[in-house]
C-alpha cells in the first residue's frame, strides 16, 4: 500500500492504519511507542512525534510487504520477528526506542544479500 492510503488530509490517520492491519488505534499507538492520547486527541495526532512514529512504522511495513505478500503479514513481522544483530529486538521495539533508521538499514542490507 502507498503512504497516501494511510492518511487523511495529508496526515497519517491512526484509524486508517488500524483498519488496514485489522487492529485498533490503541494497538497502533502501542506498536509505535505512543500513548493513547497521541492517537485520540486531534492536536496530538498532528504533532511531529506522532506523525514521525506512524510514518516510520508504515515505511518499514511497506518496505517488507513484498517479501510477505500482504500488509497484514508484514505488520505481524514488524511486531514479532527478532532481528539478527539487535539482541533479539523486533522492528517494533527498535522503532519505540527511536531506531527506525536502523531497521530500514537492516532491511536494505538483507535485501542486498548482506546478512546482519
Notes on the structure:
This protein has 116 residues and is mainly α. 63% of the residues lie in helices and 3% in strands. It has 8 helices and 2 strands. Helix 1 (14-20) crosses helix 2 and helix 2 (25-32) crosses helix 5 (48-68). The radius of gyration is 14 Å and the shape is globular. The mean pLDDT is 91.
Secondary structure blueprint with pairings:
Blueprint: E1 7-8, E2 11-12, H1 14-20, H2 25-32, H3 36-40, H4 42-45, H5 48-68, H6 71-80, H7 91-96, H8 100-111
Antiparallel strand pairs: 1-2
Index terms:
two-stranded antiparallel sheet
The gist of it:
It is built from 8 helices and 2 strands; from the N terminus they run E-E-H-H-H-H-H-H-H-H.
Instruction: Return Rg in Å.
Output: 14 Å
Uncertain residue ranges: none
Q: Which strands sit side by side, in order, in the main sheet?
A: 1-2
Number of strands: 2
User: Which H/E pattern describes the elements?
Assistant: EEHHHHHHHH
Q: Beta-sheet strand percentage?
A: under 5%
The termini sit apart by 27 Å
Q: So what's the overall shape?
A: globular
Amino acid at each position: 500500500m502507498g503512504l497516501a492510503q494511510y492518511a487523511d488530509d495529508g496526515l497519517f490517520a491512526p484509524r486508517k492504519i488500524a483498519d488496514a492491519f485489522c487492529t485498533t488505534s490503541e494497538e497502533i499507538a502501542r506498536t509505535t511507542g505512543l500513548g493513547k492520547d497521541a492517537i485520540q486527541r486531534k492536536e496530538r495526532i498532528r504533532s511531529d512525534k506522532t506523525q514521525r512514529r506512524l510514518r516510520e512504522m508504515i515505511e518499514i511495513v511497506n518496505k517488507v510487504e513484498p517479501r510477505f505478500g500482504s500488509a497484514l503479514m508484514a505488520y505481524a513481522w514488524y511486531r514479532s520477528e527478532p532481528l539478527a544483530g539487535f539482541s533479539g529486538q523486533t522492528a517494533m521495539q527498535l522503532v519505540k526506542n527511536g531506531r527506525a533508521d536502523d531497521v530500514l538499514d537492516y532491511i536494505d542490507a538483507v535485501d542486498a544479500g548482506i546478512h546482519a
